[in-house]
Amino acid sequence: MSAPAPAVAKDPLRYFRIEARELVDQLSQGVLDLTRDDRAGDDREPVARLLRHAHTLKGAARVVRQGEIADAAHQLEELLVPHRDGAGPVPPETIGTLLTLTDRMSELATALETPQPPATAEIQAEKQPEREAPPVRSDSADIDELLDAVGEAHARFAPLRRQVATVDRARRAAEAIIEQLRIRGAQQDGVDGRTGAMATRLAADLTALGRQLTETVEQVERELDDIRGRAERLRLVPVATVLTTLHRAAYDAAGTEGKKVVFDSRGGDLRLDPHVLSLASGALLHVVRNAVSHGVEAEAERLAAGKPGAGHVTVEVHRRGTNAAFRCRDDGRGFDLGAVREQAQARGLVTPGAEADVRELMRLLMHGGISTAGEVTGISGRGIGLDAVRDVAEQLGGEVNVSTDPGLGTTVELVVPLSLVSLSGLVVEAAGTLASLPLDAVRTCVLLGAVEVAAAGAAGALAHEGQVIPFLPLSKVLTAPQATAGGAVAVILAAGERTVAVGVDRLLGTSALVVRPLPELAPASAVVNGLSIDAEGNPRVVLDPHGLAASAAGRIAATAAQKNADEDTADEQDPILVVDDSLTTRMLERSILESAGYRVELAASAEEALERVKLRRYALFLVDIDMPGIDGFTFVALTREDPVLRGTPAILVSSRASAEDRRRGAEAGASAYMVKSEFNQEELLGHIRDLVGEP
What we know:
This protein is an alpha/beta fold.
């Protein structure tokens, strides 16, 4: 009996179709990257990368006898070779030819995937100006069948689990028989020893069988869960597959309009349901074209307005809770709301003389037929764009948000619900609880000392690279019973325009996650994206950077409001002046003192403190010793020499612990001396109460 024919023999193009599509996409994106104004002047590395892709595609195409694709790849090589050794930037006309070749290769690769209708004699002479969004490629039907099979296999294991329970009951029965035989044997000498031995062996065999069955079932179920997770991930499509099309649309529109436009994108690693991604990309295609056509100004107009000559169009895709947000921003002229109002009045949508607010005008724009373009072109001007986005939002049960700032640009955001999404996650631990953070939002991780943790947790902010970032202890968010002050590591996350530092105890590594929505009866949380299932089958929360940033900002606002309320109701009391060049120490001491009820002001140097004491009276000075410029010893000595300030007590706080330093502090006139390594807030507050009384 002959062996079955291998899959390659049955379909020699099976693997070529996959490889060709990937290589053509890489070639298209690589050529578009050559158009960026912000790239380095040396094109040798990107050209070398394009040549490698083209050479690979040419070789593979020749192996499976796809001559047209091989010839196109060879032509692309010929155009790029002169620029391989740094002969200057690839000129625009060459880039145009390269893109024509990648378009042709894309058409040929697509033809291999989809049966073509019979050719006709009529050939379309003129290329259409608009580029349609290609269908998002996904073998979702095959993967759905695989998922169904996994679910059926899981169901078939349920009876086997019941058999494990039956074996366990038999084992317990055998053990009971052994015990009965033992008791009878103690009472009667005539009990057959062989019966007892057989029962003992039976119990041992049943124990081994039960253990083996349990381990086998659990192992197979873990593997089935792993297959389910991998299949669900395969079912989802990377956002990057549509970003190249949007980049090309911006490039083509800019060329047609004679404008300079830089296209940026973020979120390409996110994987979404192909149906959602296909609809959203089609809507974004209209938005990107309109942004270039009548959002971004001509170069001369931009320069006259003080803007860079090249406009910017940015497409971002990110997960927001159980939704996906698709955002397109441009830095153009914004909507001409006056023109929108005039068109709406002319069409009878707004009563002449009536004032329509911005929200109402945006609503009218989204219903189509109104355009702010000066003329109808092949790209825009027909009043189609926002209404296409609205239609997609309605199909998917989402919403559209539009904001415009005259002279500065427009943002269009499509937010749609998701059932599944795949992303890479950073697994962290806080107070014994595991959670995942989207890896694409992680900017850096910073180790924190005990003092920094306490200061950040108390102040709700963390100093990092010259910026003060809102700080949120993850243990507080997860409401863990053994919640700690903050965590030994701060994970710095980007959330749109905001940044937040999340305090965790440990970093446990990265993982590919398939994120599912929370169960319907689970309590909603703005900081939770959804749930993923780990290798052991346990659910793990996936956190939302936007929700974490909002929560951190809310904590700071609540703290500030409480502080203002406390200050309004408290009796006027002279504040304590904390003088220290360390932001961390200043914030920590401020937190301790304010928590005890004292009013506090801060100075980052002794020089600043000497200026402050000229303006008002203070109850006490809390001073660091080692500071640039005037040190703490000198500051205290200077205040003791001043007839107005000498009555204000001073406490020195330093990392120095020698008897000589303590003596110098006393000689300078300090009322108390505290060592940072031995720092005890109760001792500090005790000294302050002794010197200035209760708050």
